[in-house]
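Worked example 3 (structure in, sequence out).
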């Protein structure tokens, strides 16, 4: 890792230690509010007829060793979601069984919410100030939408955590033009795309940022974009190929396009 990049990472976590009591209080409040919602106010979330039922079924298939798939009448290979959330649900199936799978996913989503709060603080602190970072962390802890999402079997908590982390990595690495740091940024940007395909937009938007914000000639700027995209494709390429192979081109139209979009750079 670039020495300057390593220094920035160390500085961020040193600053985090300096604000550790404030952050710990905010995290404690976030955990208590989410546990109160999960255990007292909404102990039995309705999973029927929505994404919750879908992800529970896919997660069970993952736990049974069948990968991200569903039985007929759906296609065997699922192409509309990435693997991260189904495997999170599948892990909960394996660890807690049918009686504890929902609570297991909810607890993991509380952990991801805490992850989001910490990196939301780090982003805002780096761009603005420590006080602004603490305000953002508090908002993330108290916002009812995020509290409710922690108790639902939806991708939002996982997606937001991966998105916030990837933005933090990009902010650190985009300040350096080395191939390795931009590759790391691209890898991180692949994480939210492996939760929800909509994140395929982000690397291209950030390439525009690099073209107009980076110093140097246009050749170097274009090379920076290519290294960023290379990291993104390294992260998403295996899943795109898996989907194409498993799907065996049985699904047509938009479904097939979604399957190969990370590979070809197609924005859905």
């Amino acid at each position: 890792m670039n020495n300057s990049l390593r220094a920035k990472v160390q500085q961020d976590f040193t600053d985090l230690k300096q604000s550790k009591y404030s952050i710990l209080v905010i995290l404690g409040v976030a955990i208590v509010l989410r546990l109160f919602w999960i255990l007292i106010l909404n102990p039995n979330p309705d999973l029927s007829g929505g994404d919750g039922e879908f992800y529970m079924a896919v997660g069970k298939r993952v736990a049974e060793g069948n990968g991200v798939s569903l039985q007929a009448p759906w296609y065997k290979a699922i192409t509309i979601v990435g693997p991260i959330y189904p495997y999170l649900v599948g892990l909960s199936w394996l660890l807690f069984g049918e009686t504890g799978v929902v609570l297991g996913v909810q607890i993991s989503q509380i952990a991801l919410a805490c992850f989001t709060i910490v990196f939301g603080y780090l982003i805002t602190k780096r761009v603005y100030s420590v006080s602004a970072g603490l305000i953002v962390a508090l908002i993330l802890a108290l916002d009812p939408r995020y509290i409710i999402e922690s108790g639902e079997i939806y991708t939002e908590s996982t997606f937001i955590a991966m998105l916030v982390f990837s933005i933090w990595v990009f902010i650190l690495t985009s300040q350096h033009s080395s191939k390795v740091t931009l590759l790391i940024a691209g890898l991180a940007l692949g994480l939210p795309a492996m939760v929800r395909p909509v994140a395929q937009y982000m690397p291209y938007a950030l390439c525009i940022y690099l073209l107009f914000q980076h110093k140097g000639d246009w050749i170097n700027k274009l090379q920076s974009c290519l290294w960023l995209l290379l990291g993104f494709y390294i992260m998403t390429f295996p899943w795109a190929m898996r989907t194409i192979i498993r799907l065996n081109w049985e699904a047509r139209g938009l479904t097939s396009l979604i399957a190969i979009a990370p590979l070809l750079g197609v924005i859905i």
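Notes: The chain has a mean pLDDT of 85. Residues 84-127 form the longest helix (44 residues).
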